[in-house]
Description:
By secondary structure, this protein is α/β, with parallel strands linked by helices.
Amino acid sequence: MSGFSIDWLDLREGADSRARNDELLNQAKHWLRSNTTLASDKTVVDLGSGTGSTLRAFTAQSTKQEPLNWRLVDQDAALLKEANLRHGRSQQLKTFELDLANISALPLDNADLITASALFDLVSVSFVDRLVSELRNKCQQQPVGFYAALNYDGKTSWTPSHPLDDTVLDAFNRDQQRDKGFGQALGPDAGSYMEQLFKRSGFKVFSANSPWELNGFDVDMVTALISGIAGAVAQDPAVDAAALEDWIQFRKAHSATGTCTVGHTDLLAFPNIG
């Protein structure tokens, strides 16, 4: 899987936090707290954990829920080290530096909830199929829930508009389906694919929109986002280099006064336990 810097993850966390669907996040918390079929000592496995953004989302303003055991799984040792520095003293956590694509090696045993943030648009159909099959099998022994937030859905809009916006978006969405280390990535299809697969696999599924709503408050993130998009589409034959440079300059010139909406979906799946 392609790596992400601590700086970028920190830059986007405010937008991620605002975008997360509160209802689904609270449902996930409530399920852990109220489901008496789960062990009293609840374990959450966070895949692609980075520096611990999902952990922070679960523990922010949380005073009633008993402490959770967190297993943070990532391929980047530096991100896991940062997560441990930030939360190792205040939370019950273990970190696992593992190849996420190797599902059999993931520490899923006795997990009550599997979580991820901004991960599943990077993975392949095969990865999701294998993971859901693994969760379905584990549910034969104990119920395992699933919460995946901030899955990119392929929709981006800007104000003010630019003539190249649609061309750039189409090229960016093609790049999102490039192999990120798991095989051809689901990209914008991740949310809908997971929803249908979990339903077919006998889970109760809830989904909700969780778009980034960016404005002048997020100028540093927007500037970085523009550069990232431009880098992703620069080699696409449908994108003229001179036109792309004009798009970049236009977008950055309006980064403090314009707006950007980037679509995401959150998904929550519970086993049917009667």
